[in-house]
Specification:
Strand order of the largest sheet: 2-1-3-4-5
CATH architecture of the largest domain: 3-Layer(aba) Sandwich
Helix content: 40-55%
CATH class of the largest domain: Alpha Beta
Shape: globular
CATH superfamily of the largest domain: SGNH hydrolase
Structural class: alpha/beta
Organism: Solitalea canadensis (strain ATCC 29591 / DSM 3403 / JCM 21819 / LMG 8368 / NBRC 15130 / NCIMB 12057 / USAM 9D) (Flexibacter canadensis)
Protein name: Lysophospholipase L1-like esterase
Pfam families: Lipase_GDSL_2
Number of strands: 10
InterPro entries: Ester_Hydrolysis_Enzymes, SGNH_hydro, SGNH_hydro_sf
Keywords: Signal
CATH topology of the largest domain: Rossmann fold
């Protein structure tokens, strides 16, 4: 609770400046372009960040979805590296949440932001003015923090996704030129990633992307290797390890009926991460992916293997990657997306049985924890989850409980911990009826600790 109060105090004091700056930036131009940044996902991630404990010598990666997708602590093998990316964020959103980012007085900040601003047709001059504010606020609130401004990456218009982001090369180059000048003026480091990722036609190289905007695993490995080669991150800290990783493009065995672009990006990315000893794996869908498990459970080798939108078929298909390290423990939660798309409850349970049996066969020493599927809150549940009912979830959980007993593994009734007296996901733990806000994750982890599962 002291942690929360300290963060709240900082948000009140330091946030006044940020909010005023953002307000001044938005007021004169609100009618001309869209400066909004609050989304359900933004608020969920930000609220979680505000509850995570501050630690010494944090190395922050700050930005939008391109940053958010990266598992930076694993890429650098350094628990001091923290991910503060939020999908769809813009420069106004970064300014607004800087008090949380800076509350730990981080050793370094690597930030990349602006491509979503360009997609919203926010003028280059406004984007650069916001970057100036970001640098100024960091210097004022955390003067010892080393600042690394990373250039925007190129895009590739040969893909059908993200059309608003495409054909904006002129603006990307103009913003990058402005960022170079800003870094020189403010005497901070500018990292020009743009030319490292283009093909012979000046587009984002297809070997690094599968949607023309975001990076696949090979792209993140290249990014990390660039930072290492320049000695910017993160081998100068005592907790980092000198780990070399190789690039492979073998994702052909994945069934594309469930392998959407995000699934493929995350899976290929996972394949490039080094295997380490005594991993504690959290495996599941978006509810798992959104958890900042390494910060919620410090001092343990926790890895996040959640993929938003994943179903039991997808989890089974990617078990080879999950089990490559022969993890010490594995916490599995899935099923809600299967219910969402109308998969019969018995078929879901059968798939979970296949998952568990494969884990037991491939990695017999891994201790398996089967966590109940979380309930939903009907009062705020979106129409996209119309097929998801607590009745079906309860039916699935009964089958999972029997399955755990049959296969001699541990069943964890997280549903009971996070539900109200009516069996609904507690309203204070969710903003959309499905996913958790920060307190939900805190209670979840605390329960796991109380029961000696961690």
């Amino acid at each position: 609770m002291l942690r929360c109060k300290m963060k709240s105090t900082l948000l009140i004091s330091a946030g006044i400046l940020c909010c005023n700056l953002a307000a001044r930036a938005q007021q004169p131009v609100a009618a001309k372009f869209d400066t909004t940044f609050h989304t359900t996902y933004y608020d969920q991630k930000r609220s979680l960040f505000e509850l995570l404990p501050d630690t010494k010598n944090e190395i922050i990666f700050l930005g939008n979805s391109i940053t958010d997708i990266g598992e930076w602590a694993e890429l650098f093998q350094n628990p001091s590296v923290k991910n503060r990316g939020i999908s769809s964020d813009i420069t106004f959103g970064v300014i607004d949440r800087l008090p949380e980012v800076l509350s730990s007085k981080p050793a370094k900040i690597f930030y990349m932001i602006g491509i979503n601003d360009i997609a919203k047709n926010i003028p280059d001059s406004v984007i650069l003015a916001n970057h100036q504010r970001i640098v100024s606020i960091i210097k004022q609130q955390s003067p010892t923090t080393k600042i690394y401004i990373q250039s925007l990456l190129p895009t590739n218009n040969e893909f059908i996704e993200f059309k608003r982001h495409q054909n904006k090369t002129e603006h990307i180059i103009a913003v990058n030129d402005g960022l170079r000048e800003l870094a020189k003026r403010e005497q901070v480091t500018f990292i020009d990633l743009y030319p490292k990722f283009i093909d012979e036609n000046g587009k984002l190289d297809k070997k690094y992307t599968n949607d023309g905007l975001h990076l696949k695993g090979a792209g993140y490995i290249k990014w990390v290797n660039i930072l290492k080669e320049l000695n910017y991150c993160c081998d100068d800290t005592p907790t980092s390890a000198n780990v070399s990783v190789s690039v492979s493009s073998d994702v052909n065995r994945i069934d594309t009926s469930y392998a959407n672009s995000h699934y493929r990006q995350r899976l290929e990315f996972f394949k490039h991460l080094p295997n380490t000893k005594n991993e504690i794996v959290f495996l599941g869908n978006s509810i798992t992916e959104m958890g900042e498990w390494q910060e919620l459970i410090p001092n343990k080798n926790v890895v996040n293997r959640g993929i938003s939108g994943d179903v039991t078929y997808g989890i089974y298909a990617r078990l080879d990657e999950v089990l490559a390290s022969k993890p010490l423990k594995l916490f599995l939660m899935d099923g809600v997306n299967d219910i969402k798309r109308g998969t019969p409850v018995q078929a879901i349970a059968d798939n979970i049985q296949r998952i568990i049996e494969k884990i037991q066969k491939v990695s017999p020493k891994t201790k398996i924890y089967l966590q109940s599927t979380l309930p939903v809150n009907e009062s705020v549940k979106s129409s996209a989850y119309v097929k998801v009912s607590n009745e079906k979830i309860q039916e699935l959980n009964e089958l999972q409980k029997k399955l755990a007993n049959q296969l001699n593994i541990t069943y964890i009734d997280v549903q009971h911990v996070l539900s109200d007296s009516f069996g609904q996901l507690k309203r204070e733990y969710t903003s959309d009826g499905i996913h958790l806000v920060e307190m939900g994750y805190v209670y979840w982890v605390n329960y796991l600790k109380e029961q000696k599962y961690l």
